[in-house]
Amino acid sequence: MKNSNQHPHTIVLGLAIEAERKKRRLTQTQLADLSNTSINFVSQVERGKKTAQIGKVIDILKILGLQLVIEKGSAGLVNHHE
């Protein structure tokens, strides 16, 4: 459910990050460790919480008439299999 701490674009970004994390069978803890962030931060990003940093970037992109596009890239740095 969208609330004032969410932005439509951060929700999409968060869902994409969560889906890829789960596809790679990584926990939020593992992703936080790999990215030198906290579990809380990973959770907030996946929930689409509008942080000052990402929210401002998205607002700037919108002002410039740009959009964030998520495409499948290279294999990435981690492909965790258990």
Write up this protein:
The chain has 82 residues and is mostly helical. The protein has a domain at 8-63: 434 Repressor (Amino-terminal Domain) (Orthogonal Bundle), CATH 1.10.260. It has helices at residues 8-23, 28-34, 39-46, 52-63. Helix 2 packs across helix 3 (39-46). The longest helix is centred in the first third of the chain and has 16 residues, at 8-23. The protein is globular. The N and C termini lie far apart (33 Å).
Shape: globular
**What's the alpha carbon Rg, rounded to whole Å?**
13 Å
CATH domain class of the domain at 8-63: Mainly Alpha
Q: Profile the largest sheet.
A: none
Query: What is the distance, rounded to the nearest whole angstrom, between the alpha carbons of the first and last residues?
Result: 33 Å
Q: In CATH terms, what is the architecture of the domain at 8-63?
A: Orthogonal Bundle
Count the beta strands: 0
| Approximate helicity band | 40-55%
* Percent range for β-strand residues: under 5%
CATH topology of the domain at 8-63: 434 Repressor (Amino-terminal Domain)
How would you spell out the order of helices and strands? HHHH
The number of helical segments is 4
Backbone structural class: mainly alpha
Average per-residue pLDDT, rounded, comes to 81
Uncertain parts: none
